[in-house]
Amino acid sequence: MPKLRSTAAVATTMSALAATSILTGPSVAEPFSTTPCALHRTEAHHSEGVDTWNSAYPRPAGTLDAVMIFLSFPDAHPETTPEELAADHFPATSRFYEQASYGRFALRPHPLKHWLRMPRPSTAYAIRRDWSAADRAAYLRDAFAAADGEVDFSRYDVVYLVADPDAPGVDSDATKVVNLQTPMRVDGTDVRRVVTVFEKHPPDRLVLAHETGHVFDLPDLYHRPVDGKGDWDTYVGDWDLMGSQFGLAPDLFAWHKWKLGWLDPRQVACVRGTGPTRLTLEPLTAGAGAGAGGTGSGGAGAAGAPAFGLGHGTKLAVVRTGPDSALAFEARGPAGNDQAACRQGVLVYRVRSGEASGGGPIEVVDAHPGTEACWENSVYPPLADAPVALGESFTVPGEGVKVEVEERTTSGAWTVRITPGLVG
Q: For a FRET experiment, which of 19, 100, 189, 305 has its CA 20 to 30 Å from that of 133?
C-alpha cells in the first residue's frame, strides 16, 4: 500500500534493480483500442491510456500461471506452513479476477510445498516499505539463489516471493511489486517484476489481488500524504481495488476493465457533440457470475451460480475532456466483487493518462459533496455515497458535463442521459 542460472549470474543481474516507481525499460506499444475516446498511453508509470498495450507487462487474458515461493530465515522457525500461507491468498485472488474479468481471465497458482532457506537472518535485509535498493537487491539475489534448481521460471507468468511472516525482520508494510530495470533472462524467459509478499497470517484483505494488479500495469489510485499522515483514500475511496484492498466496492473500474481487454469495443460508448445522449448502462458486475472452472472457486455450472459472460451491454460511457483526460460513467451496486457497496447508482470519475501511479490518474467525482455514508466501515465515507442515484441529475464541476439518471430497466440496467455541453 504488489529463472535459474548460477548464483554469480543472478548477482550480476540483481545489480540492475529499479524502484517500483520506475518503468522497466523502453515500452513497446501494441495496438489496442482505436475508439475516439481512448486516451493515448503516455510515458507516465502505469499510464491509464488505453489506445495501446505495454508489452512489457503480461496481458491478463485466458490463463496465466503464478508460482509461489516460500522463504524462511535462519533466525526464525516458521509457525505456519506453505499450504496455510497459500490458502491466505488463493482462491480469493483468483476469484476476484475471475469475477472482475467476466471469466475472461484465470490466474492459476502453483505454490511450492516446502520452505526454501535464505542464507542470512531476516533482520539482515532491512525489510521495510521504503526499501533501499541495495537491501532489496540483496534479498532478491538470495531468494533467486535459494530457488535455483527448484523452480523452472519459464513455466510461469507471475512470481510471488512469500516470506515467513513470523520472522523478526519481516515488515508486512513492505509487500509490493519490484520492477527490474533490466529483465532477468532465466530459464529461457525474461523475468521483469517480482511480487514480494511480507503479509502477516492471516493477511490484509485482497492485498495480493492489489499487488497483482500492478503486474498487469494498473496504477496505485491512493493518495500518499507527504508526511505519511492523513487520509490515503481521497482519490477514489472504496471504488477500486487499486485504491484500497479494504474498499466496500473493490471491483476494478470499467476503465481498467477496458484497459485490460475485458470489455469489447461495443461495450464502451463515446459520448460526443454538445447535445444530450441517452443510453443504457449495464451494471458493472452484470455477467460476473460466481464459479468459473480452473481457479478453485467452485467450478462452472455450480448450483445457483450464474454463468460468466452474460453481460454484453454498455458498461462504460466516456466524454473526452482533453488530449489526455476524460470523464467516465459506469453503474455500480451491491453485487459480485462489490457485494458490500455502500450506495448504488452511476459513478462518475476523471481519468488522466498523463498522471503517474500514485499521482491521481483517476479521481472519483462526488455527486453528494455535502454528505457521507457508511462511516463505520468505509475507507473514506465522503466518497461512499458518490454515485448519482436514480432520479437525480448532476453537473460535473469544472467540466459542464451533466448526467441524469432517469430510470432502471426490468433487467436492472440504468437509463442515463449525458449532456457534454461545450466539452464534447
A: 189
